[in-house]
Amino acid sequence: MPTTLENWNPGKAENRHPDVTFVEKERLFLEVKNDLRYSDFLYGCYECGICVATCPSARFYDFSPRVIAQSMAREDIERVYDIISEDIWNCAQCFSCLRCPRGNNPGGLVTLLREVAVKNGLQETKDVLQGYSRVIYKVMLKGNQVSPDMLQPDFFPDWGPWVGEFSANMPVWRKAIPVDTLRGVTDAAWKTNRKTLLELYTIWFETGNMDIIKEIDEGLYDLLADVMQEELEEG
Amino acid sequence: MSDLTTVEQILERKSHAVIRDAEIAPTHDIREALFELEAKGEIIVQRVPENHVEVTTKYGRTKKIPIDHTWHHKSCGQCGHIPGYTSSIFWLHRQFNLDYLDPTDQTSCTGWNYYASATSNAAAQAAVMSRNFAAAYETGYFPMIHCGTSYGHYKEIREQLVHHKELRDEVRRILDKMGKPLVIPEELVHYSEWVHIMRKKFAEKQTVDMSMIRATVHPACHYYKIVAEDAIYDPEIYGGQRTATVTATLEALGINVADYSTWFDCCGFGFRHVLVQRDFTRSFAVLRKIETMKNEANPDLTVTHDTGCVTTLDKSQFAAKAHDRKVGIPVLSDAQVAALAMGAHPFRVVQFHWHSTDWRPFLDKLGINWQKYWDEFQGDLDAIRAGTKSGITWEDADKPVVYA
What we know:
The complex is a heterodimer. Chain A is mostly helical. Helix content of chain A is about 55%, strand content about 0%.
């Protein structure tokens, strides 16, 4: 096809996901672009590569914060779809890329892309987060990301024999901590009072966070909603 | 004559300590914006208690760090998996009889999950932060944040709340349902900043000589990379080119801080990766951090100031041994090191037994007979198992150990 003003598309990506319509890809891009934080995270790109040089994920994966910033700035809908469906979960979210001399926040853009991927229940995202449900369950219900009872040797075999030793001694070791809010607590990181947990559940429902969970994992949503609603009704 | 900067000029400039001028800071002072919002009746700004110390941050501004009357925003990763981190922070407060609150009306920031899975949104994250700050405000105590990620995440959210009225309105609507006001503290304070301002006081009470120890420092990404201008910098530490927290503390305790080339790299935590994709975490932690430290500095210890960094650098070393990698550097937080220097019990307070990488050679080098204190701790555990003791309390842990 001869290049004309109409089809001239310098540097933009080929359609690598023909199963998804351009309209749908554009809709997802606009959802990211319309986030109130978008204009705080992207100012343009010098293509200097500082973000790539500092990026841990770029060393171990086919991943580039520079490509993300550029693709978003160029509004390269096809490339952005490649990124949202393939790349975003490689980011370590360390924010080393904030060293950008232009003031961009590629890590922040990844956060926005991830949010849109989750909210729209993209299959690749569901696959990536499949093993992660129990963590979401814990943080939303207990207000803590991790707890002592998550330290099981079958889950952390690479952390050494310590995990098995801890697991076997967990109730006693947890009682041997002088901090009042930690002592003896095994199913959360610390003691949180009930009123505080009810307030947390209120936040999850009021902000639409529960709808997000429903989109990504309906079974998990049912589990969480049952417990939280019952608690809120009683509280 | 060319206007171009020569290499010699750059090297000459870098040979001097960086003295920053707040008047020409490249970013706005967020505190001014907070006070403007307060004047309009939109938010309450919780003031730093009178008993505080002023420090200098990256662009030369001053930041107030409270000494006491603090509400401790604990870290779920520390409390859940490295409890000696938390107990050391509190133990240090108790050694100086400082007034603090260890609240039960605190949730985690939920930022670890957000950075791992994005199964949340801006309003929810801002509401979680604001609920915690409102809880602190209700007590009159000032928030001190233990986790580097909570600290970094909250700094980002503070920016968002200041710049986006619709977000403030949404958060206020949710807080109204709880009868809570929208409060933002005058300063966001990380515990390692408190450790930093207290370091000379710690040195005055130091009973364990640490001058034979060589340590490397891993500065935590979410402490000094997110909203970079809020981190402490000091021309006397790294010429003002890197954050001064942790390094200044170790130097005050007489430890030799050794440098290594990948100091800017993250630890490899990755939030999601450390839980469900640890091949990345292990590889990065070992190949880019631990082995580089070993090859370039061969330290007795590496010290950091965040939850994820201690976890990642410590736990990643075991599997690497199977591949004959150069590993074996114990990992501690600055608070644990300071507590140990002042005679904190290695197991009742510092809780070494929660760490994976062998810490015994480090204690041996300090001349601490760890076996004696481990046996003593085993006695505590036996009493707990037998039901004659409900648990270890501050009464058991407060008194510093006098090492022979």
